[in-house]
Each structure stands twice: as structure tokens, then as C-alpha cells.
Amino acid sequence: MWLSNLLSRSTTRQPPQEAIQEEIKTENEAKLRAEDDSASDTESQSTPKASASVVALQVPELSLDENDKPAPSNTTSIASPIANNSSSLMPPPPPRTPASKPPSLKPISSTTQQLLGPPRLKTPAPLRTPPSAAASLRNPVGGLSTSTLAPAQRPSRKVVLGPGYSPLDWASLAKDPRNNLRGSGLPPTLIKVTPSMLKAHNGRKGADAWTSYNGKVYNITPYVPFHPGGKGELLRGAGKDSEKLFMETHPWVNWDGILGECLVGILVSENEIVETNALDAMD
Ligand code: HEM
């Protein structure tokens, strides 16, 4: 018994939306009756059709979505009062174009999301590898440099050169072969220099100062007053090989570019000179 009552209620009861529409429809009918007293009951039943013809002009203008389908006749009666009031207060909205839509409102398609890739992290710090143990031992000032050059922080040991002894003065002196920077008493060709010969030219007691570098022997005597590091520093290599001292101090300096005209000969062993002298004696 109660089950049959329940069934009969559920079949006769309208859904809530339809009930609301019916209620608004009734209100509209009452308004229309007030406006036109001559309207009959039959006409009031056809009111939705009459209001739809009026509202049909309003609804498309106020539509916020192009995809909106034309409202059915029973729902136009819902929008009709709003449409009448709004159209009298506001101008019609501008024609809708795709460019007028704010980009932020566009939903991101799944294809676009794939092209964009994964979202970026706010800070790259978590992706950095932790500093190695050796990093803590590096000089913080030059920590990013891998240069083998002398550190820029080292104090200069340059000396004040006398007037007329600048690098430019040396260059002008060296370009003239008549100055014979190799020294006096030498043949015009390069000679063979033994270690004993090199040692004898130590710059003392009036002797020229020779030094060797990369197997070649140079007379450094004329360059002494021009040496930016001073006389004493340069003469540390007098009578011996200077390659180690030179490379420790300023490996970036072009030795041959400065002392090319001071080249005396090539460094040879003591035995080679003895053999050469023996061959010369046989001739
Ligand atoms: C025993 C060998 C040598 C020693 C011990 C020596 C030492 C020095 C020293 C201490 C300085 C000053 C560096 C500074 O604090 O700026 C210097 C600068 C210089 N030396 Fe020597 N030197 C030697 C040989 C030579 C030779 C053979 C040449 C030329 C071929 C030369 C060319 C220069 C130049 C051009 C500078 C200036 C470098 C610069 O401006 O950065 N040196 N040298």
C-alpha cells in the first residue's frame, strides 16, 4: 500500500527544475494578464509562445556563449524579465571574436601540455650537485678560474727602469742589426756553446752574461738595464740555464721575441766540441 503511494507520488511529482520553470511561467502569465486585461485563459496558456516571440529578439544579444543553443520555449519565459531589464540598462556586448577572449581563460589542451613539458622548478638550486671536498681547499678569489697563469693578487716585483730603457726603447735597439747585441769577438754565424763556455760567461770581471733557454744560448748583457724585473733577477740565470727560473716567473713572456737578436749559438755537449776540434786538426 505505502509502496503504491510512493510510486504514484514519484511519477506525478515533477523534477525541481521543471517546478521552478512552471512557477516563473505562472508569474509571467500573471504579468501579461495585468498588462492586457482582455487576455483570456486560452491566450494565457499560449503566453509562452507570445513571450518567446518577444524574448527571441533579446536572448541572442545577451548570450555569453556562442555555443549556447536556442533556449526552448518554456525556458525563454525564465530569461525574458531579465532580458528586458538588462537591455534597457546596458548597451549590447561587443561582437565576440577569438582574440577578445582572455588567454588565461583558455583551457590548456592535453597536446599543449605535452609540448610544454614538465613544470619548471622555482629555483635550480636543488638540481646543483653538492660541492666536492676539493672545492673547500680552493682559493675563494680565484675559485672559478682554472688558469695556470700567475695569480693576479701577487704583488708586483717590477723595478723602475731608467730613462731610455723602456720596452719600446729595447725594441728599437733590437731591430737594428748594427748594434750587434750578440757581443763582440763572435763570428757572424751561430756558434756551438759548451757548458763550460756558458759557465765562463757569467757577467763578472768584464765578461758578457750568457744564458741558455730551450737549447740555445743568448747574450743577456745588453738587456740587463731593460729587464722589468731588475738586473739582479735577470743575472740569476747568467752562466747557466734560465729556463726554469724564467718559466716560474713569467711563462707568458715571449723570450725569442725580446732576445732574438741576442742569440749567440746552440748549446752542445763538451765532447762534441772536442770531436770537432779533432776533426779540424786532421784537416
Ligand atoms: C733568470 C731569469 C729571470 C728572472 C729570475 C726574471 C725575473 C723577473 C721578475 C721577478 C719580474 C717582475 C715580475 C713582476 O712582479 O711583475 C720580471 C719581469 C719581466 N721579465 Fe724577467 N726574469 C728573468 C729573465 C727574463 C728574460 C730572459 C726576459 C726576456 C726574454 C725577461 C723579461 C721580463 C719581462 C718582459 C718582464 C715584465 C713582465 C710583465 O710585465 O708582466 N725576464 N722578470
Describe, in plain words, how this protein is organized in 3D.
This protein has helices at 2-12, 16-35, 41-45, 47-55, 59-62, 73-89, 110-116, 167-174, 195-200, 231-234, 243-249, 255-259, 270-282, and strands at residues 191-193, 210-213, 216-219, 240-241, 263-267. With 283 residues, the chain is of the alpha/beta class. Among the domains are: 14-89, no CATH class; 167-282, Flavocytochrome B2, Chain A, domain 1, CATH 3.10.120.10. The chain has a 5-stranded mixed beta sheet. Strand 2 and strand 3 form a beta hairpin. It is elongated. Residues 1-15, 37-44, 68-88, 108-117 and 121-126 have low confidence and may be disordered. Protoporphyrin IX containing FE binds at residues 156-158, 220, 227-229, 233-234, 236-237, 242, 245-246, 249-250, 253, 255, 258-259. Residues 77-89 have a biased composition (Low complexity). One of its GO terms (molecular function) is heme binding. Residues 190-268 form the Cytochrome b5 heme-binding domain. Residues 90-105 have a biased composition (Pro residues).
